[in-house]
Structure formats: structure tokens, C-alpha cells
Amino acid sequence: MKIIIGAGCVGLSIAYKLLEKYKSAEDIIVIDKYNVPSKGTSLRNSGVLHAGLYYPKGTEKSKLCIKGGESLSKLCHDNNLPILNCGKLIVPFNRKDEENLEKLYLNAKNCGRDVQIISYKEASNIQPNIKNVNKYLWSPKTSVFQPNKVLNFFYRKLVDAGAKFLVDTVDEIDYEKLCIKTKNNNNFKYTFLFNCAGPGALKLAIKKNKLYKDLTVLPILGQYGIIPKKNYLKTNIYPVPDPNLPFLGIHITPLTDGNILIGPNAIPVFNKDVQGKERSDWISLFPNLLYHSKLFLSNSQNYRMHALNELTFFVLNKFKEETSKFLYFPDKNIAEMYMSKKNYGIRPQLYNKEKNNLVDDFMYDIDENSINIVNAVSPAFTSCLALSEKIINTLSN
């Protein structure tokens, strides 16, 4: 029996790849604490399908993002899942941004990505009413998809193939006896275990791998705004990211329904257990406040500047200001912006207490009977099919 803990993009894509390999899912059980498919981290993102511009050539993130993006795009097209092939413009606002834009361009070209540095005239043809700056980076292969549609596609395929789904909490894993115990007193033996429990994966993995003792999860809440103006936005518009931070900044995304998504900001959430909860449950203070404060005071990874720029509770005004930096919007449309109740993001950011830094790469351990994926970082959804294929190929070797 193959047991998968977590019904998000990683867990379901692993199950889907197992189905592709073995042509059956009757020996697969997928367990999720809140819902199947997941209503947690995987569902809570902007749905941007990344082209692999940001990560150095040859790194795990670069290879998984590029291959995963191509695989996910093909899956959407082949199965008539909504996808918007709209590209992305990256906009610099000062000299430092321009220098980083040039570096980003060189990195993307080095990775074989289709990118161009273009002029204001060219950018205006792509996105009318964009603000006039000296140069822009254009990525025509960036797309937008609907995460819920992809998760439901995996789920339906797996149910039809005989997979079993269970809403329950895994309380204990006995790695020696190859069995798990759940909150509802279910006991299962497994031949292989996939721990893809998102922010809960670390707690389960520590019992097996003591190397994880210096790690903890600092959940980051990302909120989004919506402008209900149909088909005004033609492409994704991003700022030039700070290379020292694992955040890409507040950006603007055209949704597949024609509306416009703005965000996310990044607000610390002080309760680890935030998946599947309503926002009224989230801000329960203090357990992780110490680590956020330590990052801020030490300015590790330029965290202080990020905090001052984005860790704001005056969210709607911030989004209006950021949107106006990118585009000339009629005042009426800016005034109509509202905070989205469903497009909020939950990022379980892994933090190394000993090194006082944010862990910004995939992290997992694997043996003959189990794998613990303790950090499936952004762009995890873009990368999920490539990550799953790599894991399953590893098991076969």
C-alpha cells in the first residue's frame, strides 16, 4: 500500500504520476487533514505558471521549474483546463532595479528561456497604459492557470482509477514498522510513504531525521486584491525582485475570468496550523514572533527592507499604490478594488533557527520506504509534475 499524506499539488501530482506509471491507483491512499483535494497552500496562490527566469542554471529549482512548467502547461492544454498564455512584463523603477533586470535577463538566457529586453513602445503594444520606464523584461512563455481546476483534475483521475481518499490527521509514523496511526484511530501499513503534508510535514519528519531539529515553520499570509475590470490587463506585470529574498513582490495578474488580481503582500502569521482555516482564526499571537523579530533586527537576507515594504496591515491602500506604479488606471477602477476573500495565500516558510535564515530551496529526504518533503517552495505548483516524476524515478532506481 502506498500512502500519501497531503492532498495538495505535490501529493496529488505524485499520486497522478504513480497512476501513469502503474496504470492503477487501487493501492494508493491519500490522507489530508482538512479536505480532499486540499484547500490549503496549493489552492491559495495567484495561479501564475512560471517560465523559470529567476533561478541559476543547473539548480534544483531551475530544472524543476522549467520542466514542471512545460509539463503543467501541456497537461492544461491537453485536457482543456483553463490556461491564459499571456506572458509577463518585469518593470524596473530605479537604477538598481535596472541592474538587477540585466542580471535577470542574462540568467534567463543562460537557462535557455525565451526572454527579451524591450522598449516602452514595445511594452505598450503588449500592455496599453503601462507606465513609461527605460526598459522592460518580456517573458512570453509565462502563463496563468486555475489551481483548483488542476487539483480537481488529479482528484477525478485518481478516484476513477481506484485511489482512496481520507480526511483525517496522521498523528504518528512508525518508520521501522512501516505503519501510521491517525487521529480517528485508523491504522495503516504501507510499502511506501510520501509525506507531503505542507507545513505539517516537518513535525512528522523530525522523528526520523534529527537534522531537521533546527528548522521551524513561519507561516506567511499573502492577501490579494481584485479589480473587477474585464480584459483590461493583457499580461502579468511584476517588479524586479530583490535577489536576496524568496519573495517576488506585489504583482498584477490577469485572471482567466478577465478580472485583475493584485498581490500578494506578506504578513507573518503566528499560528503554524493555518491551512484550511478561516481568516478569523489565523492571527493567534506569539509562538513564532521571536523568529520574525530576530530576522528583522539582524536584517538577515535583507528581511528588514522587505518587512518595511510589504509586511503591512493597510493592505488595500498599499495595493492601490502599487497598481498605480505599474499602470495608468482610471480612478474609478482603482476605487473599485476590493480585498479578495478566496484568493489569499498561505506560504509555510521554512526557517533555520540556528542559521537565522529562510530556507529557499526544495528539501526532502528519501530512503527505501519513505520520503519526507519538508520544503516544497515556490514555485512548487509550477514544479509539481517534474518534482513528482523525479521522485518516482528515484524510487525505481
How large is the share of residues in beta strands?
15-25%
Q: How many individual β-strands? A: 24
* Distance between the first and last residues' Cα: 19 Å
Shape: globular
Low-pLDDT ranges: 270-287
Radius of gyration: 21 Å
Number of helices: 11
| Estimated helix fraction | 25-40%
**Strand neighbour order, sheet with most strands:** 9-2-1-13-24-23
User: What's the overall average pLDDT, rounded?
Assistant: 86
Structural class: alpha+beta
Q: Outline the biggest β-sheet.
A: 6 strands, mixed
Characterize the quaternary organization of these chains: single chain
Task: Give me a quick take on this structure.
The chain has 397 residues and is α+β, with helices and mostly antiparallel strands. Helix content is 32%, strand content 24%. Helix 1 runs parallel beside helix 5 (147-160), helix 1 (9-22) crosses helix 11 (380-396) and helix 2 (60-78) packs across helix 11.
What does this structure look like?
It is a single chain. With 397 residues, the chain is an alpha+beta fold. Helix content is 32%, strand content 24%. The strands form six sheets. It has a six-stranded mixed β-sheet with strand order 9-2-1-13-24-23. The chain has a four-stranded mixed β-sheet with strand order 6-7-5-16. It has a four-stranded antiparallel β-sheet with strand order 19-14-21-22. Helix 1 (9-22) packs parallel to helix 5.
